[in-house]
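Appendix C. Worked example: Glucose sorbosone dehydrogenase
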Amino acid sequence: MTGRTRRVEGTKIVQRRAGSAVLAAAALLLTAGCSSDGEPSDGDGSASPATTTAQSSPSAPAAGQTPPPAKGSVKVLRTVATGLDSPWGLAPVPGGDLLVSSRDDATITRVDEKNGDTTELGEVPGVSAAGEGGLLGIALSPDYASDHMIYAYYTSASDNRVVRMLYDEKKPAGEQLGAPDTVFRGIPKGMIHNGGRIAFGPDGMLYAGTGESGDTGLSQDKESLGGKILRMTPDGDPAPGNPFPDSVVYSYGHRNVQGLAWDREQRLFASEFGQDTWDELNAIEPGGNYGWPDAEGEGGGSGFRDPLAQWSTDEASPSGIAYAAGSVWMAGLRGERLWRIPLKGTEASAKPQSFLADEYGRLRTVAPAGGDKLWLVTSNTDGRGDAKGDDDRILEVRVR
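Step 2, the predicted output written as structure tokens:
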């Protein structure tokens, strides 16, 4: 599988936006897990069954909360939009519409959730789209109702970085994005393993999943930003309560994190690509070491966090995840399916189930759509999929 062992030089310097204000709010400490990363070049291979690993839960489920049923279901309700080019990140906006980033075109597009009509907000300047890099994850400011800021993670000519831009709906289409304000820079870049998922947590802090850019040594180096989950204030400073002094590093030993989600108890989970053997879903603990490159999958030994579930790389190659109906739902790229992992605390309460296998091709992003519904974004126009005439698309699905 090409792209799994290529090495790229990484960056070791943590740089944050000068003069940014540190938020005084107390941080919520989120919980436990392990990880693997990087999107491999797709290929065929024999599937092996998913396995689950039990690990102690740092906090019990809420009173009266029962685990989800062992068997779930997925129903595709409708196709929301078609004809999207290399979609990557998704962010619902107040009122129901959806913002979608294009990795290769470096544009952000608004999709009318009711009729699928699209309006381009504009192009993000400075994006260098090559290999797995480009315009990746997007997220709305926690104060979006008042500041109308869109955050974006992208690959530049020199690094991966996080910026924020004013979204002005009153301006003409194509001119609605303000100039990028760099919030955080210096994340290692490469042709592979650029991470890219960003999300604001329930504590109001900004989390970013990064990759080791093909240089495996970065993952265990706590001074490097590569192969990490980062946690920062909306202005790009180390968040209060982070496990390492004056550092945005929240967890380390990752290969390529591309999925972040929280459950009802505000516990953080992350998906990650393995190299040749095991892809992983991890429950994230502050300061936790998830093993890469010394461990892939469970059984890595003392000091490493085991995944709560793992898959053969043929079945998963995971990107986005979301929490709904008591389960984590994980989009599979090479696996071309949606995985359900029912939870009891930070353990998988039953064997993972797959849905939609080989029906819609590669699946890149899954996001909550309210209640028991999810948004699901395909990824067949990214150069690795088998694009059909109406690809790529956004689906609305109901899950149980």
